[in-house]
Write a structure and sequence with these properties.
By secondary structure, the chain is an all-alpha fold. Helices cover about 65% and strands about 0% of the residues. The longest helix is centred in the N-terminal third of the chain and has 48 residues. The protein starts with a helix and ends in a 12-residue tail after the last helix. The mean pLDDT is about 85.
């Protein structure tokens, strides 16, 4: 076998080993990714059990108060009940 053949066979062997290593790494990555999403899902479920969100507080009801009523009660000079302008 010539030196060129030896180089070709060793390169092929290295390529096969690298391919096998890449496949193992890809499988490990897929497994880790699946474990990550499972853990994230379980964490969300447990967090909801331990710390439930409080019920939303109702917004205060707003009622209409006429501006003239506010002015009458405060005794301002610009009130509509006939105040004197000095």
């Amino acid at each position: 076998m010539t030196s060129l053949g030896i180089v070709a066979v060793s390169a092929l062997l290295i390529a096969v080993l690298a391919f096998a290593h890449a496949r193992r790494t890809a499988r490990k990555l897929a497994m880790l990714e699946e474990m990550y999403w499972q853990l994230k899902f379980e964490h969300g479920e447990l967090k909801a059990k331990v710390d439930p969100t409080p019920p939303p507080t109702p917004e205060p009801q707003q009622t209409f108060v006429p501006l003239t009523r506010l002015r009458q009660g405060s005794g301002e000079a610009g009130s509509t009940h006939g105040g004197e302008m000095g």
